[in-house]
Amino acid sequence: MKTLSISALLLAGLCILGPARAQDAPKPDAKRLEEVTKAMWPKTPEGWEKRISYDETQAVCSQFRNDLPQAEFDKVRARELATIKLPADGKVMGDWKAGQRFANDGRGGTFTDRPMTNGANCYACHQMDRFELSYGTLGPSLVNYGKDRKYAAEEAKAAYAKIYNSMAVMPCSTMPRFGYHGFLTEQQMKDLTAFLFDPESPVNK
Amino acid sequence: MRVFMALAMSITLGAGLARAQQPVDTEKELEKYRQMMSDPMSNPGFLNVDRGEVLWAQKRGSKNASLEACDLGEGPGKLEGAFAKLPRFFADTGKVMDLEQRLAHCMETQQGLDMADIIRRRFGAPGRTSDMEDLVAFIANKSSGMKYSAPLAHPKEKEAFAIGQELFFRRSDFMDFSCATCHAEEGKRIRLQGLPQLNKAGKDAQATMGSWPTYRVSQSQTRTMQHRLWDCYRQMRSPEPVYLSEGLTALTLYLVKQAEGGEIQVPSIKR
Prior knowledge:
The complex is a heterodimer of chains A (about 200) and B (about 270). Chain A is mainly α and about 200 residues long. Helices cover about 40% and strands about 0% of the residues of chain A. Chain B is built from eleven helices and seven strands. The longest helix of chain B has 15 residues, at about 1-15.
């Protein structure tokens, strides 16, 4: 929690006094947990070295169930912000049509997929083009995203950064850090930014 | 069976037409479909139950023994209600085990079966039946109409629960996902797929856990919880978790605890 009001503190107190919640189970012994986790994935599959991560940010988000105390929140934001690489040519806008395709594509990256260009699958969590009805609700609607921001260049740059590393804006966000992990390429992220910010994109129609 | 195939087809094709459909209608269609398909006469999952019954009694393996002396927690050979209390602690192994781990233990120690073969066939595919899926369907069905209970009386059960909870929230790998990413809020969906909330006790967890094992129409196979978790880790872009590993059992115990009091009706049938 960032700033806890007195009433929130009271409520939290009441929950603890209420019926025992499964959530409140004590943490397991750290060494046992590591042993069990290791036994689930005893060896790194070939080619997976870079994709298997349990970095500091993931650890702290897991530990605090994604609800960080202020000091941790600031630390994560600063750390994640430092990872963002904007395109060298300074251009964040690619081809919105390609972006539309990636936003819809959920293939790639699983242990049953062969190596391929990963889809971004933004629709898994976001509404984007209002005529595409197969969208998820884990993230906010992005309908009219560019239009609502008056197609401002600074806003497009911020969206590129958001896609690159969602946690630089919102530590422990549900949204994957697509650029940080190298899940999407620079070109894909440009195309997705254009999908959000091109006036011709169906997102803004 | 023909009606069943036609329905399966229309559901699959329906998914491609999502652009033109209202999400609400899709949900209604699925509900109608779910009701029809919980009928044992048209649910292919009951073929697994029948095969499992044969496998249970059949003398096999290097010890030419059946599984009838296998103790699933309620005493040797006692099947009624055994599934409803799993995973649980077993004194003879000193471990908390789920149904599949316990079956594997009995197959190995009492029957002397070739475990490499059992594990190779852990997930059924066209032309390849799975002894595990058959036995789990048969044994879990003997708890139909009963309610899950997970008292966590033994310290090892408490420990397994705590580990399961940590794994549920453990964010990792390429996509920063944890189980909580998709299963810790009420009423969310990914694309059009509804996501049950599984981090708290209640109706979502009860309805979910009370319906596994299930016949998956999309895969034409009866699947167990081990397979469900394998598939969720796949979607999370994690490497393949080891079948029958302790962590998967810990996660299952965590989920069963949230589903405590929920009624078991299995094998069910799902998308």
